Amino acid sequence: MTKPLLIALFLLPSLTVFSQDDLMNMLEEETNNEAKPEKVTATFKAIKLINANTIETTKKKTLDFRITHRFGNMETSNAAGKHTLYGLDNASNIRFSLDYGLTDKLSVGVGRSKTREHIDLNLKYRFLEQKEKGLPVSAAYYTNMAISPVADVPEDKFANRLSYVHQLIIASKITPGISLEVLPTFVHRNYVDKSNLHPKNNSADENDLMALGFGGRFKLTKRFALVADYFMGFSEFRDGDNAYYDALAVGVEIETGGHVFHINLSNSEGIIENDFIPNTRGSWGKEEYKLGFNISRVFTF
After folding, report:
1. CA nearest to 69, candidates 198, 199, 251, 203
2. Would you say residue 1 lies in a domain?
């Protein structure tokens, strides 16, 4: 028997074992891939709907520069609206903000608003992710601290200028075109004026406020969607009899390359939760809704 034939006969069992091992490894990998549920992505297209935060966080090493603008009350059926070009002459609020992704799930941000001159620092952490064949929802925690540098702070105490928000965001991409979310929200303001009582129930303002938010995105085309959000407050002091209203906003979303653009109507001039949850004074029934827009530009480093 020749030497090459002896070598072949000696190696054949080993090659058979290695082939079986490779085949088993391939089958295990395929099984693992089939068993591993895929993450659901792009539940929303931006980190905010209109007033509401979304489940989305700014991606790692990415900066989201955002401009949010609210004009004045439209009041379309009376002279006041005509003389202000239905609110376009008045800028009731403007906010500039920057949000940066520390990881794909954790982002931090800073913003400055016109109303109350709010400067806010915020953090969002997405700790649950929806799976195609598994967990049906995503969840994130959002918190912020806002400082109001205005001159009319009682006793001029720094602590009286501070307010805080804690929010849980629970969202689900129901279908490729429909995404919904619910947002239990807690707002704490260090100082409130408790001297003014409710005209009917005699209640006073509260430092702590609870609200429940709802939001939705309804995709119509690849780059066009309807968006809406609503925050229902729980307060005896803040109701229609005392000229406080729940914040309701509706609009359209347009995606153009690196931009996500929202055009909306909202009865709130406030843009951050510290402002629009306690201080929405516009009534949809009185045409005190405001035209606004949100525009976002993303930069990757």
Report:
1. 251
2. no
Where does the pLDDT of residue 18 fall: very low under 50, low under 70, confident under 90, or very high at 90 and above? very low
CA 66 to chain centroid: 12
Whole-number Å distance between alpha carbons of 283 and 285? 5
**152-195 pLDDT tens trace:** 777 778 999 999 999 999 999 999 999 999 999 999 999 999 98
Instruction: Kindly report the CATH number assigned to the domain that includes residue 107.
Output: 2.40.160.40
What gap in Å lies between CA 57 and CA 125, rounded to an integer? 7
- What are the Cα distances from residue 249, in Å, to 50, 70, 104, 139? 7, 11, 28, 22
Q: Distance between CA 212 and CA 174 in Å, rounded? A: 20
The total of structural domains in the chain comes to 1
pTM above 0.70, yes or no: yes
- 26 in a structural domain: no
Note whether residue 231 is domain-resident.
yes
**108 located within any domain:** yes
Structural domain containing residue 215: 37-300
Cβ–Cβ < 8 Å for 133, 37: yes
Q: Which of 29-38, 135-144, 282-291 has the lowest mean pLDDT?
A: 29-38
